[in-house]
């Protein structure tokens, strides 16, 4: 995946975690200021969505992917939970916009457990 491929993002966050909500708002503002299209409604997920941006814990990630019927789009997760082995740490937040602009991230394939 390259920077040219990441233009429209679906950003979802764990609404029961106040710090997650605040960070999501700030991140969305920074992404939009940088020219990214950010949607917040899972019902708007379609083939024009390039990336799922999920802020929460591993449980939130797994639940969200299940609710979205395991979409084809890559997912970038930021951990706000207690385990977080499936997600990036919060320390990446200041660099997410640059990361998406530059395309300096790798997409890893993981099998879906059912």
Task: Explain what this protein looks like in three dimensions.
- The chain is an alpha/beta fold.
- 29% of the residues lie in helices and 18% in strands.
- It has 3 helices and 4 strands; from the N terminus they run βαββαβα.
- It has helices spanning 18-33, 58-67, 96-102; strands at residues 8-13, 37-39, 51-56, 75-79.
- Strand 3 (51-56), helix 2 and strand 4 (75-79) form a beta-alpha-beta unit.
- It is globular and about 30 Å long.
- Calculate the mean pLDDT score and round it: 88
Q: Could you give the distance between the termini?
A: 26 Å
Give Rg in angstroms: 13 Å
* Approximate strand percentage: 15-25%
Q: Count the helices. How many? A: 3
**Quaternary status:** single chain
Estimated structural class: alpha/beta
Count of DSSP E strands?
A: 4
Rough outline: globular
